[in-house]
């Protein structure tokens, strides 16, 4: 039997950190993420994007996040997308260390995730980062190793893309 709030450990080239997931609040999103973890689908994943104030000059609303997953190109390990669980529905918000699903349109989140660096209310439902106002699907919180997330955030980048990406060596359900 799984714990009520499962914990996953990320091991990266820059260190490890732990994340508590919230299946009661965001069951579809957590279920999707855990399927990737259990099936080893993140074995080719990396943190490949960092969004900082210095690399989003055309955005009317600045955010600070690091993004990881299988990348933006089609990938054989990617599963079909899941229904969008908005923050007004789940009660979760984008605060420092929150893990959330990357997406283009509502209902397109599949393998890409990001972590907030600092509080990011513009990513919540009604926030101004996306024109559709639907925000992103938050589904967990880093509980250990925030310094590793910040180290990834500070890595060299070309535009918003880390150069080089930071490999994710393992994502393990504890």
Automatic annotation (TrEMBL):
The keyword Isomerase applies. GO terms for molecular function: peptidyl-prolyl cis-trans isomerase activity. InterPro entries: Cyclophilin-like_dom_sf, Cyclophilin-type_PPIase_dom, E_coli_cyclophilin_A-like. Keywords: Isomerase, Rotamase. Residues 4-174 form the PPIase cyclophilin-type domain. Its EC number is 5.2.1.8. Gene3D superfamilies: Cyclophilin-like. Residues 81-97 have a biased composition (Basic and acidic residues). Residues 74-101 are annotated as: Disordered. It is an enzyme of class 5 (isomerase). Pfam families: Pro_isomerase. It comes from the Bacteria. This is peptidylprolyl isomerase. It comes from Calidithermus terrae. The lineage of its organism: Bacteria, Thermotogati, Deinococcota, Deinococci, Thermales.
């Amino acid at each position: 039997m799984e714990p009520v709030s499962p914990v996953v450990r990320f091991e990266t080239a820059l260190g490890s950190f732990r994340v508590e997931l919230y299946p009661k609040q965001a069951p579809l999103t957590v279920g999707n993420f855990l399927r990737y973890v259990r099936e080893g689908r993140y074995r080719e994943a990396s943190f490949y994007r960092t969004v900082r104030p210095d690399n989003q000059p055309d955005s009317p609303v600045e955010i600070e996040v690091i993004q990881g997953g299988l990348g933006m190109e089609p990938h054989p390990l990617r599963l079909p997308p899941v229904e969008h669980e908005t923050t007004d529905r789940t009660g979760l918000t984008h605060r420092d260390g929150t893990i959330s699903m990357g997406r283009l349109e509502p209902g397109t989140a599949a393998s890409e995730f990001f972590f907030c660096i600092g509080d990011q209310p513009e990513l919540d439902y009604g926030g101004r980062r996306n024109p559709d106002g639907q925000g992103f699907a938050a589904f967990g919180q880093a509980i250990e190793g925030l310094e590793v997330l910040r180290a990834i955030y500070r890595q060299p980048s070309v535009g918003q893309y880390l150069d080089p990406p930071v490999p994710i060596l393992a994502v393990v359900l504890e």
